[in-house]
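I am still getting used to backbone structure tokens and would like to learn alongside you. Would you supply a protein for us yourself, any chain you care to pick? Start from the sequence, derive the backbone structure tokens from it, and show both lines together. Go ahead whenever you are ready, and we will take it from there.
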Amino acid sequence: MSLILAATLSTLAMILIVAVRYLMVSGAFAFATRLRHPGLYHGLDKQIVREIRWSLMSAAIYGVPAGVVAWGWRNQGWTLIYERPGDYPLWYLPLSIFLYLFAHDTWFYWTHRWMHQPRWFRLAHAVHHASRPPTAWAAMAFHPIEALTGAIVIPLLVFIVPIHVAALGFVLLVMTVMGVTNHMGWEIFPAFMWRGPLGAWLITASHHQRHHEEYRGNYGLYFRFWDRLCGTDRGVGRFAPRKAPGGGCGPAGEPDGGEPGRLAPGHGR
């Protein structure tokens, strides 16, 4: 088999993996939303179809560099991914995970701020913010330009920072789960993760939803470090109620008014 054909097959396989992973994870959390907060996505069917369409397009873009790099790692010895735990000290395993998450968060923060420049927002990022409110299906709903900025960061890191293959899998799991849960319109994590001392530095839906509501600030992905350092942290909030089918308040918030996906003001740190 020629090198080009092998790399192409690896890329196609990775595109399929990314697409199926998106459908499974977003679908699972959308189902959890239906059980936990019935009616939360009521009336959003057309938006969800659009989110899925853009997300599958993004999956194809994410799969290309990942597939090429995966083939190069297995067949050409590219990358600094290692499989034998003894190649690096045991303490390096959690450190490598943190380095990847922090590097990814740094890249995301600054590219995200760049995407909020008026020209680039209109050209690309508006696709993601067209989800009002975002749902569990919106995690990868990106314009191709934005998808490309996100698709290259992990494939680049594996050439720079050594990481065990299992640790890399964990990083990808965190990336997938946080991308979905940050957009699904309710807080799945316990309060200590977003309201206590730990929440002062971690990002969950309570932090990211405010970005979707206010269109400025809260640009980070996993950590609040860059938002705090650069003065763009808008704090966290609580979710105001959704309108349930037939009138009345849905179970996602308290009965104090508001719109779907809206964080009630005045509750940030």
Residues 101 and 175 are 8 Å apart (CA to CA). The beta strands are 81-82, 163-164, 238-239, 263-264.
